[in-house]
Amino acid sequence: VLMLSILDIYFRSPVIHGMRQQQSPLAAPARRLVLFSADGLRADKFFEGSALEPSHTPFLRSVLTSNIATWGVSHARVPTESRPGHVAMIAGFYEDPSAVGSGWQMNPVPFDSVWNQSRRTWQFGSPDVTPMFSIGIPHVTSDNFDASLVDFSGDPRRTDDYVENKVIALLEEAKQNATLYAELMSDKVVLF
């Protein structure tokens, strides 16, 4: 009985169903959201540096300290894998424990996210993360790198380079494509 009570407490879904959609009375802080997420990049690294020892992330640090952007720090909760962390950032709740049964490969419980509420979303990245935010959402465009690019013993920049090249290609295409340009410049747009 004691063992079952632990399972009942810790394996309860955080997703609440049957709620009406709510609108915020506040204006959005920006027309578009550009969300950067980097595994293993600790928030304290953005704030390191001094006149004697420059920051390792000078551009991002300047964005944080100059008030030209709204930013936040996400705090991890176990399991500290990419997928559960992205669910917390994008959907606003910790991953449903029932997803452990699928090895965190799919979320068995449908949920709302920032992507659902956007007018248009483009996302580039890991095949472990992006599909769960695009299934059944026609206004989300996903481009995932091949899982073979992930090699923790090799060069970790390969996946970063893939995403960077895809984002640059999207922005370059928008210079020639008026429809794409208009979509990127509209409000409620997410680039992840």
From TrEMBL:
GO terms for molecular function: mannose-ethanolamine phosphotransferase activity. Gene3D superfamilies: Alkaline Phosphatase, subunit A. The keyword Transferase applies. Keywords: Endoplasmic reticulum, GPI-anchor biosynthesis, Transferase. It is a multi-pass membrane protein. It is found in: Endoplasmic reticulum membrane. GO terms for biological process: GPI anchor biosynthetic process. Pathway: Glycolipid biosynthesis; glycosylphosphatidylinositol-anchor biosynthesis. GO terms for cellular component: endoplasmic reticulum membrane. It is an enzyme of class 2 (transferase). Its EC number is 2.-.-.-. The keyword Transferase applies. InterPro entries: Alkaline_phosphatase_core_sf, GPI_EtnP_transferase_1. Ethanolamine phosphate transferase involved in glycosylphosphatidylinositol-anchor biosynthesis. Transfers ethanolamine phosphate to the first alpha-1,4-linked mannose of the glycosylphosphatidylinositol precursor of GPI-anchor. PANTHER family: GPI ETHANOLAMINE PHOSPHATE TRANSFERASE 1, PHOSPHATIDYLINOSITOL GLYCAN, CLASS N. Belongs to the PIGG/PIGN/PIGO family. PIGN subfamily. This is GPI ethanolamine phosphate transferase 1.
